Amino acid sequence: MALTDLKVRNARPMAEKNFKLSDGHGLYLLVTQCGGKLWRWKYRFDGKEKLMSFGAYPLVSLSAAREAHIEARRTLAKGADPMAGRKAQKEVVPEVVNPFRQVAELWFEKWRTDKDVKYVENTETRLNNDVLSAIGSRPIDEIQAPELVEMILAIESRGASDVARRAHQTTSQIFRFGIAHGLCKQNPAQMFKPGDVLKKIKVVNFARVEKSELPSLFKKIEYYDGSPVTRLAMKLMALVFLRTSELIGGEWSEINFKEARWDIPKQRMKGGARPHIIPLSNQAISVLETLWNYRKNDQWIFPGDHDAKKHMSSNTILKALERMGYKGEMTGHGFRGIASTLLHENGFDPEHIEMQLAHAPENDVAAAYNFAKYLKPRRTMMQWWADYLDRLLQEAELASRSLTVEAAVN
């Protein structure tokens, strides 16, 4: 059967091999393991089997591939080799003037695959409002670096420095996509860095307590008199030092009790670059087993208090810390800074720490493939960390008992 636009668009790669979708008369779509969709035509000339390329979908649509295929068959019917006079395997690109918007749309359709829906929507909104509104109608090969500088400075002028930097990053990705598909010849976004033209951003660290205050903090968490699920959320936050959104959005399907690990899909991680693995310490397993007894459904590890169909609010942990007397002194994110500082101080490998903090490397390809690196030493590190927190709690308990005994004697 001949292909349809819907069938071509919905074709998904197979992990184990490439596969073909036939359109008839030797024309087929090659779907690669990496997700590429390539138009190919197998034919015979002068007794030899040959293979001709008509480009990559969606840059070359089904109808465009068929038109190129028909023209090539006419050449063959005249007794000439369709590939004569052109470089072997050179892809046919539609003869169109490429405005930046057209290339951006093609990039976006490829980029959005497997991304979180909300993340995709936010990126699309920023792309339309901040980038395409400024340079969308310009031919992509005519855009120069000064135009991009003007674009991101305009974004910064409204107090959105971070958005300006994201716009630069997204624009650079679109140019790289265009170069890879023969739609442009240069990437003007790579000719300068945002820091060359934007104001320096003052780094604001998330509030966190000093090392000397940790025993008292963990004792207050242990005896927190609010919701038991909130108390357990704070305990688990300290043990695994995830970002708050990554913790509260946890689902039971991600927990592997048998192998003592928490596998978070990349769609839930900041930036969506890679999945994340948390080796679970004995203490973390104990907290999760207790949480299982409090579950309201089989989806959320931390269901909402008022609506179990949703997960816990992002402010729940912060409000609990404020109730315990840490307003302006400690946040959920602060546990990450504490863990990073103390693990470094105690001689753990910086790369192992960075991997466990899910700090993505600069190289997106490395981010995609390295998420499972150093699992064995990271497991040792996470168990040491859990034992260390237990020792801090014991210190607080002993100090409290000493004060009680001293008060009784006096």
UniProtKB/TrEMBL annotation:
Q: Name one Pfam family in it.
A: Phage_int_M
Q: Which UniProt keywords apply?
A: DNA integration, DNA recombination, DNA-binding
A single GO molecular-function term is: DNA binding
> Which GO BP terms sit in this record?
DNA integration; DNA recombination
Please list the residue ranges annotated as the Tyr recombinase domain: 202-382
Start and end residues of each Core-binding (CB) domain: 98-179
Matches recorded under CDD domains: INT_P4_C
The question of whether DNA-binding is a record keyword is answered with yes
Q: Does the keyword DNA-binding apply?
A: yes
What Gene3D superfamilies would the database entry show? 1.10.150.130, Integrase, DNA-binding domain, Intergrase catalytic core
The UniProt entry's sequence similarity note says: Belongs to the 'phage' integrase family.
What protein name is recorded for this chain? Answer: Phage integrase
Q: Which organism is it from?
A: Candidatus Sulfuritelmatomonas gaucii
